[in-house]
Amino acid sequence: MNALFAFALGMALWVSNAAAAETSPTLDHVTPDLSDTASLQRGVALFTNYCMGCHSMEYARYKRVADDLDIPVSLYQENLIFTGARVGDLMENAMDRKQAAAWFGAPPPDLTLEARLRGASWIYSYLRGFYQDDSRPFGVNNAVFPNVSMPHALVGLQGLCAEKPRQGQAGEPLCTRYAAEGTLSPADYDQAIYDLTNFLAYSADPIRPERERLGLFVLLFMGVFIVFAYLLNREYWKDVH
Ligand code: HEC
Description:
By secondary structure, the protein is mainly alpha-helical. It contains ten helices and six strands.
């Protein structure tokens, strides 16, 4: 009976594993580093220049981002706000969702919380997953999000990969044949995508560094407090025995 049960469990696990392998794409794994301010600054610059035309970040405010990322507000306003918005405003864009849905087939979603929805590794792999596919409306497809209706926004930087990119295989180049050249080397493109991913990880959880700092204080306080609690406890019970 036990053996039968173990066999059934084994089969169930095997089947569910096989199903998962079929549907989930292979990802390259990255760990965001919200303390790397230089990376976050490059990330917000890329996001503003290449993504905000279509995607909003409407749960974030320019001012907060400028402060968190150590960018002087005047510098931020001059270089990273193109819409006439004020620094206190939410990072919205003017694209009409209905029209956008008609243009692209699906409206570009807001990306403030995208890193919570998909995870950093998914975003990183998605942005490195575009390749040439002439059967698609924009001439590109994506290895991580098949038949996505987003054009390859960074084609000028990466170039256009002419084959399905190889992800999740350490040591192998992502792409060996290009249909168009980009301005960045593969290593520099990876760095740019890391910075962009890092920025999206920040926007999804902007108070994380603050939380971790506070947590440390709390632990330190508890450590000191416990000494006094112990001494007080000893004092109270001294005469009881
Ligand atoms: C020309 C418009 C356009 C630009 C520019 C653009 N996107 Fe998109 N993006 C879209 C559309 C449309 C979708 C929805 C695709 C779908 O659902 O098929 C999308 C989807 C996405 C998704 C997946 C959302 C999901 O379903 O979870 C991510 C992540 C994303 N874009 C990131 C970016 C980043 C980062 C940039 C800047 C480098 C960028 N996009 C630039 C139009 C755009």
